[in-house]
């Protein structure tokens, strides 16, 4: 048994899948993820779909906030832009799904560009406030541009089909999402081994130093914004398809908070952590539902105030993680892993 | 402009000033916390809402008269401020700005949903002891409660001005805001100042909340008003008490004028949006707000 992991070259250090152990369990994970829809019921599948969408969206937010250090409180707005854009493209222009989904992502990326330009000079708090204002502007446009978005009545999303194959069941959508999640995760993971990704991290760690060593901050901030909102847009398009109905009530500020919680709970600036966080935060409402069922006998009022219970749990989770576990679930995972790696001589 | 149009304009300005003074009160609490502790408090609107709900609860459930209920609310919100500072913000000292912002966002979510859990989302009429008869001055009409609100805000501003200018504690707070380390070395208990600023912010917020609920109504959407502090402080400068008040007034005026004149063109939501829109515009031109100090960062 090895008592440590010794790397003798940079190449080895840069590897994504570092050990056979990791490769083995990843393969198990991938196989089980592919087998999952054949064993799960429709409700589980639906939840799994939401998990996948959350992974994509949270990756986007983590690229911008976790890796580039640009605090965004407008993530729900980007998701909304993607959802509405892809839905409207297929509704009004009759574009096939495989065109409208990436186009929706691109339109969302474009909105990211638009918001990035005024935000380039802003930092920290001011950026948070500006993206926050952006959220309210998007919400306003959705509610009031009746002709296009159908206002508060919402839009019915046409059932998608890819090359003649109708994606009419949760299982088919599951595979669609899976085929998008895997490259999204791999792309994000690889991104931070490239020049652009390292520039993002440099900007996060100290933007002035980054500029001094020759990183074009403007260019990379814009790229980060656009990439983040592209991910958000894709997540939005998939969200629309999964829900098959979208309205302004799906893209409230609580959604932004939910995504921020995913990033914080999972681990700021980690890819694996983002996946943990997204799955955790998507399953949390299910846990809360159990809690509600257990408590509803004593507190019948909870039945009608499920949304509040959920929101209070989000708030509590964010606060508790920030105070007690700032590195998130990823940090917990690393700690547990390191403990068992050297067990029983874990020193 | 004919006299009727002029009258509408003045009426809009008047109600803008009244709403703006409430915004100013909330922004004042926000600036207090930011100045002394460097924390951006996203939960300011929720503190305000909790104060209003607590007062309502005392009056309706325990039939406490308005004035004692008001005073008890102040005590309650002071305790709440201490508790929040001690439990949530103190462990975050020295952490990254992202974490600090997020912890207050989490706090805001928690407080808002707790209010929703306890009191639901119905709209209540706040039982304030003001008559419903409007006072007419120079052809403009103003409700007594609105007059009281503007007066209360004015009194608070003067009190805070005097507090910061002359009282020992106020001076200590200013010193802490200016330079924590030097203040600490001068024998100021920075820890106490941190608690105090949360207490003051929370108390000011609950006063604002009670007046806001009296002017309009008591509902969980009230906390949205708390978000108006951002345009206000960005306008007025995030570290200036006078600027916060001025910013609040400007936001109130902008909203009312935009609501009065632009809603025919852009639809009903333009009133709420105008503040955020002007906020974005201002930040585009001046990234540190209108009167904000440009931060000098060293590597």
How does the major sheet of chain B shape up? 2 strands, antiparallel
Unreliable runs of chain B:
none
Biggest sheet overview of chain A: 2 strands, antiparallel
Q: What is the overall number of helices of chain B?
A: 13
- Using only CA atoms, what is the Rg of chain A? 21 Å
Structural category of chain B: mainly alpha
Average pLDDT, all residues of chain A: 87
Question: For the terminal residues of chain A, how far apart are their CA atoms?
Answer: 15 Å
What fraction of the residues of chain B are assigned to beta strands by DSSP?
under 5%
Characterise the protein shown here.
The complex is a heterodimer of chains A (347) and B (299). Chain A is mostly helical and 347 residues long. Chain A folds into 2 domains: 40-251, no CATH class; 253-340, no CATH class. Chain A has 15 helices and 4 strands. In chain A, β2 (161-162) and β3 (165-166) form a beta hairpin. The longest helix of chain A is centred in the middle third of the chain and has 27 residues, at 217-243. Chain A is globular. With 299 residues, chain B is an all-alpha fold. Chain B has a domain at 18-222. Chain B has 13 helices and 2 strands, in the order ααααββααααααααα. Chain B has helices at 3-37, 44-62, 66-89, 97-119, 144-166, 168-178, 180-185, 190-215, 222-226, 229-236, 241-261, 263-266, 270-285; strands spanning 135-137, 140-142. Chain B has a two-stranded antiparallel sheet. In chain B, α2 (44-62) packs across α8 (190-215) and α3 (66-89) crosses α8 (190-215). At the A-B interface, α6, α10, α12 and α14 of A face α4, α10 and α13 of B.
């Amino acid at each position: 048994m090895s008592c440590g992991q010794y790397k003798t070259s940079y190449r080895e250090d840069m590897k994504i899948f570092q050990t056979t152990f990791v490769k083995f369990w990843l393969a198990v994970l991938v196989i089980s993820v592919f087998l999952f829809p054949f064993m799960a019921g429709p409700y589980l599948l639906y939840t799994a779909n939401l998990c996948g969408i959350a992974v994509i969206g949270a990756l986007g937010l983590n690229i911008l906030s976790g890796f580039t250090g640009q605090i965004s409180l407008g993530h729900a707005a980007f998701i909304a832009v993607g959802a509405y854009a892809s839905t409207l493209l297929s509704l009004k222009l009759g574009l096939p799904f495989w065109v409208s989904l990436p186009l929706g992502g691109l339109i969302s990326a474009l909105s990211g560009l638009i918001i990035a330009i005024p935000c380039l000079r802003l930092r920290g708090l001011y950026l948070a406030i500006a993206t926050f204002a952006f959220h309210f502007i998007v919400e306003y446009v959705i509610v009031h541009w009746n002709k296009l978005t159908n206002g508060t009545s919402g839009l019915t999303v046409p059932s998608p089909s890819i090359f003649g194959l109708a994606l009419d069941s949760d299982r088919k959508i599951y595979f669609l999402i899976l085929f998008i999640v895997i490259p999204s995760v791999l792309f994000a993971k690889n991104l931070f081994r490239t020049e652009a990704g390292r520039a993002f991290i440099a900007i996060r760690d100290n933007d002035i130093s980054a500029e001094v060593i020759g990183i074009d901050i403007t260019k990379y901030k814009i790229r980060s914004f656009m990439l983040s909102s592209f991910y958000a847009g894709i997540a939005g398009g998939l969200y629309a398809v999964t829900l098959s109905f979208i309205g302004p009530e799906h893209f409230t500020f609580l959604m932004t908070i939910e995504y921020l919680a995913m990033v914080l709970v999972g681990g700021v600036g980690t890819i694996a952590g983002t996946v943990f966080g997204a799955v955790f935060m998507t399953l949390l409402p299910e846990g809360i539902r159990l809690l509600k069922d257990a408590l509803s006998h004593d507190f019948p009022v909870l039945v009608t105030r499920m949304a509040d219970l959920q929101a209070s749990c989000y708030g509590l989770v964010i606060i508790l993680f920030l105070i007690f576990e700032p590195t998130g679930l990823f940090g917990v995972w690393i700690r547990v892993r390191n403990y068992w790696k050297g067990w029983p001589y874990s020193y | 402009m004919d006299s009727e149009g002029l009258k509408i304009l003045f009426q809009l300005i008047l109600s803008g000033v009244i709403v703006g003074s409430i915004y100013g009160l909330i922004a004042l609490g926000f600036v207090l916390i930011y100045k002394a502790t460097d924390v951006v408090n996203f939960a300011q609107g929720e503190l305000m809402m909790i104060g209003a709900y607590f007062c309502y609860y005392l009056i309706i459930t325990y039939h406490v008269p308005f004035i004692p209920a008001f005073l008890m609310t102040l005590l309650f919100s002071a305790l709440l401020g201490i508790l929040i500072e001690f439990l949530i913000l103190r462990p975050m000292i020295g952490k990254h700005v992202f974490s600090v912002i997020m912890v207050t966002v989490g706090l805001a979510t928690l407080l808002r949903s707790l209010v929703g859990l306890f009191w639901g989302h119905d709209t209540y009429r706040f039982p304030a002891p003001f008559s419903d008869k409007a006072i007419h001055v120079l052809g403009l009409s103003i409700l007594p409660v609105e007059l009281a609100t503007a007066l209360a805000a004015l009194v608070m501003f003067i009190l805070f001005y005097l507090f910061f200018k002359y009282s020992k504690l106020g001076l200590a707070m200013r010193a802490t805001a200016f330079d924590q380390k030097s203040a600490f070395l001068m024998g100021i208990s920075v820890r106490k100042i941190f608690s105090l600023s949360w207490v003051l912010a929370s108390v000011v917020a609950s006063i604002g909340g009670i007046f806001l609920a009296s002017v309009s109504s008591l509902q969980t959407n009230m906390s949205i008003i708390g978000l108006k502090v951002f345009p206000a402080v960005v306008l007025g400068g995030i570290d200036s008490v006078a600027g916060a008040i001025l910013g609040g007034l400007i936001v109130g005026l902008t909203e009312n004028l935009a609501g009065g004149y632009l809603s025919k063109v852009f639809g009903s939501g333009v009133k709420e949006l105008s503040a955020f829109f002007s906020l974005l515009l201002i930040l585009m031109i001046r990234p540190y707000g209108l009167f904000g100090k440009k931060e000098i960062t060293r590597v």
